[in-house]
Amino acid sequence: MIKELQQQVEQKIASIQWIQEPKGLYDPIDYVLSLGGKRIRPVLTLLACKLFSGDEKPALSAALAIEVFHNFTLLHDDVMDRADTRRGKPTVHKKWNDNTAILSGDAMLIKAYQLLQKVSSDKLPQLLQLFSQTAIEVCEGQQYDVDFENSLDVTLAQYVEMIRLKTAVLLAAALKMGALIGGATEQDADALYSYGINLGLAFQLRDDYLDSFGDAAVFGKKIGGDICCNKKTFLMITALQLAGEEDKKDLLRWMRCNDVSCFEQKVEAVLSIYKKLQIDTRCEEAIHNYFTKSVESLNNIQLSENKKDILVKFANDLMGRNS
Amino acid sequence: MIKELQQQVEQKIASIQWIQEPKGLYDPIDYVLSLGGKRIRPVLTLLACKLFSGDEKPALSAALAIEVFHNFTLLHDDVMDRADTRRGKPTVHKKWNDNTAILSGDAMLIKAYQLLQKVSSDKLPQLLQLFSQTAIEVCEGQQYDVDFENSLDVTLAQYVEMIRLKTAVLLAAALKMGALIGGATEQDADALYSYGINLGLAFQLRDDYLDSFGDAAVFGKKIGGDICCNKKTFLMITALQLAGEEDKKDLLRWMRCNDVSCFEQKVEAVLSIYKKLQIDTRCEEAIHNYFTKSVESLNNIQLSENKKDILVKFANDLMGRNS
């Protein structure tokens, strides 16, 4: 079913005439939306709507609004992070320039609202409120992420709040919007939102985990990227908390070493401290806890077990598990 | 009455708790909204609402949405144009950095939608549609402005379309939104929109005019800024069209001269060609025509002459005339 919903998202994206005049504004939008990706968020919107109403079509525009919004954040984040590639292709600010990425991104945010406005007008105020609230939270999450780069005393609670804002709320809102369009009760929509938040947190922590302990071939990125750029992830924050005086001194010393020539050594040294402190196990536990919380949220929802199983399977697939 | 509405805008801005956590995101928003300015757009929204309903208060949130949106465009435009100051103060990307200007700008665009959503829900779909349409047009106008910088064959029609999108539609939409909130008929709201478009065009052409023929002391900027950076304004486009072979060659030669040391000579030479070709008179005529069209649009509106006089006076004041 997920594959089929994915195809519907692709078809809907392909059906829209993204390119208009001035081409300098619209070509990059078409480019970034054509890069593909798993379309996780719009698929969740369609899935939620279908589970509650039997039909996903009323949620198509809202699903696309979520996807266009998500791609807007990628465009602007890539400028801020000076990222050169995205999905194996040059980022918009690389292929064009910074100004293009800023302005086309702005247009995408507005386009997202235009797409959202196509939902039935009785549901518009509620969906709009949720969408804007989520959008502003994603901005807040990005700001905390930037702030944390230059801070050494980020707590675990602050970090989890940051990834909740930056990553989880959009997954959760995608689900809740689909549920509301599908006629779910406020209570069921909120339970689904909770499923999304905890799944989003588990997913982001898994990303942190794989960046240090993954198989480079499967992960698709080089191992240790977060370590090299001193990211205060779950792993590093926990390590700094648990480390004895010597290990802590070592970790801080490696974080001051930002020369590319020492990166290989740095990754090796930090990983060995992580392993000594059993940070991998700690992280696995946290992932497991959020994942369990996510699936448990489904208990409160008025849906058949068959339908809930689809959501459990989706969660397992997203986490790279075969349930 | 305008002064009083201006004060209401300031009070409304002051009443909102702009600064929240994370401060890195919200401080710049508070900063840019505190810089002041004439608040032309929100005043027009309040004025239009008051003229049709006798009360401006129902339009306060929409007026603020327009002002926050306008300031969002300034934030991002200043990054793109590398402008260092705005209203005599450092721009956000100068006081903080580019990333802050991008992200805080994004948050302002979302905030604008949140403010707009406070209008009564029966009017929300129509206002939202108008707001998004206008917002995307402003992006298109900015893109054309960027495109025209590197083009030598911009026609007058293309230029007018660019300033219509970049400047006039927001003035017009500010008026139309206020009118709709105030209960105006669609026809009256459209006539007011037309008043706004033509007033916006006249206002922008006057800005072009003053940049070349104004009194530096009154204009508040150095004369010839547009000439120095080769802006294809109404003046330059008309001059290139009317110039004989020699003058055209001269104009093109000066446009290739981008060394600061030659700017004084460049401004003097281009101005003397403008005067020879009577470009100042042409521009005055165009301003007069748009201004007349603007005021004529009021004929079709079902409002008392007293009320229309307020709009005529506003237009005259905006154009720096004493009616």
Note down, in words, how this protein is organized.
Two copies of one chain form a homodimer. Chain A is mostly helical and 323 residues long. Chain A has two domains: 1-183, Farnesyl Diphosphate Synthase, CATH 1.10.600.10; 185-323, Farnesyl Diphosphate Synthase (Orthogonal Bundle). The first copy, chain A, has 16 helices and two strands. Chain A has helices at 2-15, 23-34, 40-53, 60-81, 92-95, 98-116, 124-149, 156-181, 186-213, 216-219, 225-228, 234-242, 245-256, 263-276, 279-297, 305-318, and strands at 85-86, 89-90. Chain A has a two-stranded antiparallel ribbon with strand order 1-2. In chain A, α13 packs antiparallel against α14 (263-276). The longest helix of chain A is centred in the middle third of the chain and has 28 residues, at 186-213. The radius of gyration of chain A is 20 Å and the shape is globular. The first copy, chain A, starts with a helix and ends in a 5-residue tail after the last helix. Chain A binds chain B through residues 21-22, 24-25, 76, 79-80, 98-99, 102-103, 105-107, 109-111, 113-114, 117, 121, 124-125, 128-129, 132-133, 135-136, 139-140, 142-144, 146-147, and chain B through 21-22, 24-25, 76, 79-80, 98-99, 102-103, 105-107, 109-111, 113-114, 117, 121, 124-125, 128-129, 132-133, 135-136, 139-140, 142-144, 146-147.
Pick out its properties:
homodimer; 2 strands; two-stranded antiparallel ribbon; 2 domains; 16 helices; mainly alpha; 323 residues; Farnesyl Diphosphate Synthase; 1% strand
